[in-house]
Design a protein that fits this description.
This protein is of the alpha/beta class and 126 residues long. The chain is 37% helix and 12% strand. The chain is built from three helices and four strands. It has helices at residues 4-18, 33-46, 79-95; strands at 27-29, 55-59, 73-76, 110-112. The chain has a four-stranded mixed β-sheet, with helices on one face. This is Substrate-binding domain-containing protein. Keywords: DNA-binding, Transcription, Transcription regulation.
């Protein structure tokens, strides 16, 4: 039996599109590429065209996101840069003679454009 979240994708987003009505959204940003894959499956099952009717973006740039039949637009986190910053911070904490000052480093994610996003095509919100 599908998880309730799976049913909500189909009911809230794809059901109106399948019936030729306008969706409340022109795009979906998922918390992970794995969730985006579930959204893609729901779209296939309901006959909704990605990106023709709705755009889809995942998060993490999982290895399957670039497969030829998937080609998921995603947000990639620069993992090497994150690891380097973590190691540098640990080294600074170890070398500190007492409490270390609190610091913050911003590491920008990267949008990886593939085939699941397109222009809104004049789609309007409800």
């Amino acid at each position: 039996m599908p998880h309730r979240g799976w049913i909500s994708y189909r009911t809230c987003v794809f059901h109106p599109l399948h019936q030729g009505k306008k969706s409340i959204a022109t795009g979906i940003l998922c918390i992970s590429d794995h969730f985006a894959l579930g959204v893609m499956q729901a779209a296939v099952e309901t006959g909704v065209d990605i990106p023709g009717q709705i755009s889809l973006i995942g998060f993490d740039d999982a290895s399957f996101a670039s497969l030829p039949k998937i080609q998921l637009t995603t947000i990639s986190q620069p993992k090497e840069e994150i690891c380097e910053a973590a190691v540098q911070t640990l080294e600074e904490l170890i070398a500190a003679d007492g409490p270390a000052p609190i610091s913050c480093k911003t590491i920008e994610p990267v949008l990886v454009r593939r085939d699941t996003c397109g222009p809104s095509g004049g789609r309007a919100l409800w």
